[in-house]
Amino acid sequence: MSVAAAIGALAGIAAADAAECPRKDALGTSRVLSVDAKTYPRVGLKSFPQTLPLADHEVVLTFDDGPNPPTTSKVLAALAQECVRATFFLIGLHASQHPDMVKRIAREGHTIGHHTFSHPFMARIPFDKAKGEIDRGIAAVETALHGTSTTTPTTPFFRFPYFEATPAELDLLASRGIVVFGADLWASDWNEMTPEQELKLVTERLAAAGKGIVLFHDPKARTAAIMPAFLRYLRENGYRIVHIVPPGTSQKNADAR
Fold first, then answer.
1. For the whole model, what pTM was predicted?
2. Which residues face 215 on adjacent strands?
3. How many domains does the chain have?
4. Which residues are catalytic?
5. What does the angle CA 103 – CA 106 – CA 112 come to, to the nearest 5 degrees?
């Protein structure tokens, strides 16, 4: 497939997604961006010199540390209300505890990435143990999603807990064709604050940056609480949602829904 044809196919997917949205005034998903490890091996300006090729006012929504049914379900409901697609970096242990929620995330059209098995500080443990965390986490998510234990991820997207990684760990993921995600800005929702404070913080940071990969944590009750208002802020201020997917998996994901 030519580059032009690939772009056309992705635009078609975005258009189809928009056509399925029951609310004509919803924020929606503006476009689908295919991300591969050869072109974008490591992205997110908080950790790396490169990020995704986003235009002004384009936003990629990402959520870490789930699934956690009480809060993840609220986040999913808010996203569905606005017809928005996001990416969830799941902890393997949590995925193994809540496989139905993993399947729901995928069924509702979101991208599922990986976030180790138990969320350790990866730069502070031996390489073999770190490799085991990566592989066990991927296998747990794949088992929850597809019923098959494999260390080859359906979606080769990975985010390090606490954004800590060693050069050897980064090289390992690069050798396996797995994109490493940082973030361009975050809500700091791991800190104690009210939902109102979180909403003010993240909207001010986004207004200053103008675009970017935004990090939230769906197990945080304050994040679940602000998501409808945050998405409304995006809609009212002209932001556009970009849904990231790995090359060649868009149709598979659509078929799985």
1. 0.90
2. 62, 186
3. 1
4. 64, 217
5. 110
